[in-house]
Amino acid sequence: MPGIVGLLASAALAVAGAVLAPSGVPATATTTTSATTTTSATTTTSATAPLQSGRPFAATSPFNVPVTGAPVLDPHSSAMVARVARDGMGYANLVEFGIPIYDATSSTPRQTVRCTITDWGSCPFGTAPRPIPTTARPSVGSDGAMVVVDPTAGTIDEYWQAAPATGGWTASWGAVNQVAGSGWGGGSTGAGASRLAGVVRVAEIQAGVIPHALVVQSDTVCAGTVRAPALKTDGDSTRPDCIPEGARLQLDPAIDVAAIPGITPGEVTVARALQVYGAYLIDRAGAPLAVSFEVAPDASAAGPGAVYQQAGFRWDYFGMPNVPWDRLRVLQAWDR
Q1: b/e for 308-330, b at 16 or more Cβ within 10 A?
Q2: Contact at 8 Å (CB) between 100 and 293?
Q3: How confident is the model over 197-225, as a mean pLDDT?
């Protein structure tokens, strides 16, 4: 699709379903498969790198590198896609299981955070108080997700089942990742991806450009198999058409998505990002295919917020039916 890669790369410089398993579960993978790529998933150690025009993680992050060349498809791609696209929908997690994202500054209150799960190792938030804005609220779904980005410290605090408590906050589990890192590390998602990574932001929908790969969830995630760059899995499916966590999916780039009858502006934005950057499967879900979005500041039980609604996302779990989900493909190798 000529011009789209350049458009999104320039913009990067310029600018449904509940997760069913505890995202912090320690790695359960027994088999690792690799996808051939030149992108490194190694977490960088720099702790003081600002967000690049709002896009987190290193330029070499798997989330920030577009699919180029002639990708090699997984030999089971057709069956995998038929399974996850069987509803003809990619459900947008906009409210109940959306991701609330907050910025922290030096004046943001520091709160003690206690992990309620004690048999998975040391609490990733440590003993030092963490920055949590007074206005912070976790998602209303059972995940209780919440992300706090501190650009000055270069940290991303990622909470699973967060809740305010006497004297601070609690979380079942989570992770602390680096703004300048790879976007992979810790236990805030089933595959070990950062909870911030790949989330579609409100500002990106408003701008009409998503300059990074997306993250998706499915009810058909392979048990015991991980595909790089994923670090672990919460998959439980033994079906022959299951998809391993870490798999990269791409929408056929030959499709002129803007010409699809009835397609909404928001669907066009999502589809173009799927053509250029694709999406990584990072969690189990209760739907065939779900996509992670940021919770808008004005979201409520009545709707997902003005920006999303103006883009055509009329309600939580909007299925984005005009995106040709059956034209996804699962990649085995790229960047060749």
Answers
A1: bbebbbeebbbbbebbbbebbbb
A2: no
A3: 97
How many whole angstroms from its chain centre is CA 56? 12
Q: What is the pLDDT of residues 249-308, one digit of tens each?
A: 999 999 999 999 999 999 999 999 999 999 999 999 999 999 999 999 999 999 999 999
* 229 preceded by a cis bond (ω within 30 of 0): yes
Tokens of 159: 């909470």
Helix 4-14 crosses helix 265-276 at what angle (to 10 degrees)? 100
DSSP state of 153: T
Output the CA torsion sign for 113, 119, 122, 127: positive
Say if residues 122 and 323 touch (Cβ distance below 8 Å).
no
CA distance 212 to 61: 10
State the residue for tokens 């709002």. Answer: 54
**Domain boundaries along the sequence of the chain:** 4-18+28-99+192-333, 101-178
CA-CA distance, 277 to 54, in Å (whole number)?
Answer: 17
> Measuring CA to CA, which residue among 195, 198, 283 is closest to residue 18?
283
